[in-house]
Amino acid sequence: MSGTEERRENTGLVVYSSKTGNTRKLAQGIHRGLEDALGEGIRIAAVEDNPDPAGSAWILAGFWADRGNADQKALNYLKSLEGRSVGLFGTLGAYPDSAHAKDIAQKARDAAAEKNTVLGCFLCQGKIDPALTERFRSLPADNPHAMTEERMKRHTEAAKHPDENDIASGVSACLAMIKAVLPGAAN
Ligand SMILES: Cc1cc2nc3c(=O)[nH]c(=O)nc-3n(C[C@H](O)[C@H](O)[C@H](O)COP(=O)(O)O)c2cc1C
């Protein structure tokens, strides 16, 4: 194999869906961290640009949580992939170790797993659109979505993310996911 071919096989794609910028920030941090670890030439693109997966040894796809699922643009892209090795990352308002987060991760995994191999999923919190927080605040106390002290605490914590620790954890998690499909890996 020539050097050029080797390099091409080594490349991957980071694609992300982001409404308010949290997942874009995480994606850019992961991309930077991966290039530091693996070398330059890794592609990064917004899902709206519908990046061609051809030639990518692996794909890392980012989503944001939207009403109990991964967002629709990310789901559509995941479902368009075939025969790929796909790692997932995402941001959400809920705590990443909550049952809600696990449920959303599973839905993203299921969408990707239809025609691909899923390598894993990394989640962290992302600040919640203040307009949404306000909407919850305006609900009457007997509404199931009404703002409670515990919910407000979660929104306040989410407002600090994704931070540098989240990005460092995302880089480590994504490196571990793609390790299995890097050239030279025992598999
Ligand atoms: C319309 C809407 C729906 C949301 N639904 C959920 C949800 O079901 N679960 C959750 O944990 N967070 C939810 N969030 C919070 C976002 O997932 C979170 O703020 C995320 O980081 C946004 O990512 P982005 O900045 O990349 O768009 C929602 C936010 C909005 C605006």
Describe the protein's architecture and organization.
- By secondary structure, this protein is α/β, with parallel strands linked by helices.
- The protein folds into 2 domains: 141 residues, Flavodoxin domain (Rossmann fold); 33 residues, no CATH class.
- Strands 1, 2, 3, 4, 5 and 6 form a 6-stranded mixed beta sheet that branches.
- Strand 3 and strand 4 form a beta hairpin.
- Helix 2 crosses helix 7 and helix 3 packs parallel to helix 4.
- The radius of gyration is 17 Å and the shape is elongated.
- The protein starts with a helix and ends in an 8-residue tail after the last helix.
- The N terminus is likely disordered.
- It binds flavin mononucleotide.
Question: Can you give me a brief rundown of this structure?
Answer:
With 187 residues, the protein is α/β, with parallel strands linked by helices. The protein folds into 2 domains: 3-126 and 163-179, Flavodoxin domain (Rossmann fold, 3-Layer(aba) Sandwich), CATH 3.40.50.360; 128-160, no CATH class.
**H/E element string?**
HEHEEEHEHEHHH
In total, the number of strands is 6
Please work out how many helical segments DSSP would assign. 7
CATH superfamily of the largest domain: Flavodoxin domain
CATH class bucket of the largest domain: Alpha Beta
The assigned structural class equals alpha/beta
Unreliable segments of 5+ consecutive residues: 1-8
Strand residue percentage? 15-25%
Jot down its keywords.
single chain; about 190 residues; alpha/beta; Rossmann fold; 2 domains; 6-stranded mixed beta sheet; 7 helices; 6 strands; about 45% helix; about 20% strand; binds flavin mononucleotide
